[in-house]
Automatic annotation (TrEMBL):
Organism placement in taxonomy: Bacteria, Pseudomonadati, Bacteroidota, Flavobacteriia, Flavobacteriales
Domain of life: Bacteria
InterPro entries attached to this UniProt entry: Glyco_trans_1, Glyco_trans_4-like_N, Glycosyltransferase_grp1, Thiol_BshA
Gene Ontology molecular function: glycosyltransferase activity
Organism annotation: Flavobacterium restrictum
All residue ranges annotated as the Glycosyl transferase family domain in the record: 196-349
Gene that this polypeptide is encoded by: bshA
Protein name: N-acetyl-alpha-D-glucosaminyl L-malate synthase BshA
Stretches assigned to the Glycosyltransferase subfamily 4-like N-terminal domain: 11-179
Amino acid sequence: MKIAIVCYPTFGGSGVVATELGLELARRGHEIHFITYSQPVRLALLNPNVHYHEVIVPEYPLFHFQPYELALSSKLVDMVKLYQIELLHVHYAIPHAYAGYMAKQMLKDEGIDLPMVTTLHGTDITLVGNHPFYKPAVTFSINKSDFVTSVSQSLKDATLKLFQIKNEIQVIPNFIELDKNTKDSSTPCHRYVMANPNERIVTHISNFRKVKRIPDVIKIFYKIQKKIPAKLMMVGDGPEKEKAERLCRKYGIEDKVIFFGNSNEIDKILCMTDLFLLPSETESFGLAALEAMACGVPVISSNSGGLPEVNFEGISGYLSEVGHIEEMAHNALRILKEDAILATFKENALLVAQKFDIKNILPIYEELYEKAINIY
Ligand code: GMT
């Protein structure tokens, strides 16, 4: 199949999922065209089936806001015609589903009809899309998509509750390439660089937005390191990072917390990690938690959104009510204190992650694409 994938190219989960999906589809022989404003961070163009087309938005002083949707839909039209693309798969409703619909309409005018699949990722529904200024356009573009998927049951429920949706929403969970971890396991894990042998390593990875509750991460770690020797690795960048650094100084733990910024070497960081913290206000899925689990790292998370669909209570980690720092720290210590308990949680985390192996999830997307193309 010839498929155009529209996504955000940044470190966010939706872009990562879209990129990994496209790369795996390309490995399976499909022709994949990524269409976005810069090369997706995890995109390796080493496969002849992978193409990347940059959406360029010319700057014009009249525009206070440059019209990205217009440039994207025009690019989609051009690329569909040039490469005879058979299907559009847009990740994140805003503004991708809207631009995709416009492209479809323009193409229809030229006698080209192709299906569009929209995948909802989370904040496009729960935070941004739900804003009254966007809601009518988001509702419209979801309803005009030929097929709609959501990354968790929880996100599906939220979408149906918040929007007037006429379409079926198919839940297709996010996935992980487990083979990659086995392939890379020959790379040595330089744990000794980050911590002393007696120290546990706790990690958080995110875009440091408010929804991630970064101060909770620091507060939970503060309680952990009071009881056992430990280090905290904070990976990612975003608006809450500076506040987090200040909080570490306030608690006097700055020498135990390492801020890495954005990294392309998540696997190398996770291989050293004993415990992953994700105390978010909400997560439609929590891809970062799954990535940790795939490296055999148990997770302490909040019990909100799609997290209970990924992190299994008492098995791959523990879940607490949002903001329940005391309980999260207590559960973290339950996992970290004894080697044998930690080893069991690590094993279980990996077992749960296997449920989300890309090998199980990709055929579901392929089946959906085939159905969509055959209908058209
Ligand atoms: O977590 C973020 O703020 C980034 C956001 C995104 O759009 O990239 O992540 C969302 O999509 C991910 C991939 O499907 C999910 O794993 C995240 O849980 C979801 N984030 C939220 O719902 C807050």
